[in-house]
Amino acid sequence: MQTNALPSLDYESPRDDTALQIEQSPDGTVTITVPTHRTAARFVGNIISAELLAIIFAPLLWAVFKLFATRKPRAVLRLTSEEFIIRETSDDGLGYDRRTRSWPLAEIGELRPNRFSNGLYLTLNKRDSLDLLTDIPAAMVAEIGTALAEARQRLESQRPLPTSS
Description:
The protein is built from three helices and eight strands, in the order ββααββββββα. About 25% of the residues lie in helices and about 25% in strands. α1 crosses α2.
């Protein structure tokens, strides 16, 4: 029996779409891919919780999810020497609702796991604060926070010191 499947390269391991992926580049940039937790049960449950009569259409909603839902990651975070970028995809629907936000790295005060509630805590020069990724498991948020803190420290150590004239 002959198969047309291409063999994977020895140095390349297959990606696990259900695991947190942290990639560091030589320039100190870190890219973190947060997997989706989007499921048919969650999709149908969200619709049924809004309208009880929707339970009649649960089999149809399940089929809609299976046919049209994306497997896009829940979020992709990127920390560079210049900025912090987060591209989020909603896990509540079919995965088409995307939002991208970015802030200059110089404006970011704190970027760490929130100590009091779930999520990633971000402050902008002590004038504004917000929680990101509040629906992600706490252990994953902690891992993201550690990776971002290490990357930020590396990026700041690579930044040239200002010269006095």
